[in-house]
Amino acid sequence: MSESSICQARATVMIYDDGNKKWLPAGTGPQAFSRVQIYHNPSNNAFRVVGRKMQTDQQVVINCPIVRGLKYNQATPNFHQWRDARQVWGLNFGSKEDAALFANGMSHALEVLNSMADAGYATLPRPVSNGPSPEELEQQRRLEQQRLEQQERERQERERQEWERQERERLERERQAAAGQETPALVNLTPLDINTLQFCSVSALFSDKCAAHDCPERKAGIHSAYQKQQEILRLIQGRVRQRL
């Protein structure tokens, strides 16, 4: 029976340069996405990873067998890696969905291989001293986690500053609105005020007419008019203070 693909994903295939301690794109030419598939051969229950560039020439950039005991490391949600007998492979997926799909396919293949009897089936060769050590892989994972946490803190700080800015603007608008309501209005005399002023004028005229005659009505009128004027002035002053 021929091989069949159990999953495929879009990813950039990388290999680890142990001499320079950095990742490099697999294959030749410019870096590009590849269609990475896991093939299963039911005749011997063998699995392998095959990746071809998504270009006209469909260059094969990875053809790696999956063996029992292989350690598949999901370093980040989008970057997974594993070690074989020759080197360390890395897949930089185009999306988290692609990464999850491929990881599920790899887990299925490893479960099938690990459940088989030891005799007659491929086992993981003794690892050679190339590629990052487990400590280096763990350090890479921690650095990536720290980077993601830093990005989250920066995002929260930007949101906090934006909220404070909007809150300051809202308080300033409320303060200006309150200040506008407290602006003193012009004092308008009510009809009652005008009538009382006219009464004061009549009282004063009455006092003038009686000025030539030293009579009791003149004295009583002057006293009454004066008291009325004082009362009216106090009333007007009180209203003015209330409106201010």
UniProtKB/TrEMBL annotation:
The segment(s) forming the WH1 domain are 1-113
Task: Tell me where it resides.
Answer: Cell projection, Filopodium; Cell projection, Lamellipodium; Cytoplasm, Cytoskeleton
Q: Name one GO molecular function term.
A: actin binding
PROSITE patterns listed in its UniProt record: WH1
For whether the record's keyword set contains Transferase, the answer is no
Spell out the coiled coil positions from the record.
Answer: none
Q: Which GO terms describe its cellular component?
A: cytoskeleton; cytosol; filopodium; focal adhesion; lamellipodium
Which residue ranges are recorded for the region named Disordered? Answer: 146-165
Tell me, what is an example of a GO biological process annotation in this record?
neural tube closure
UniProt keyword annotations, A-Z? Actin-binding, Cell projection, Cytoplasm, Cytoskeleton, Phosphoprotein, SH3-binding
Principal location class: other
Name the InterPro entries on file.
Answer: PH-like_dom_sf, WH1/EVH1_dom
Q: Does the keyword Cytoplasm apply?
A: yes
Assigned protein family: Belongs to the Ena/VASP family.
Name of the featured protein? Vasodilator stimulated phosphoprotein b
The organism named in the record is Neolamprologus brichardi (Fairy cichlid)
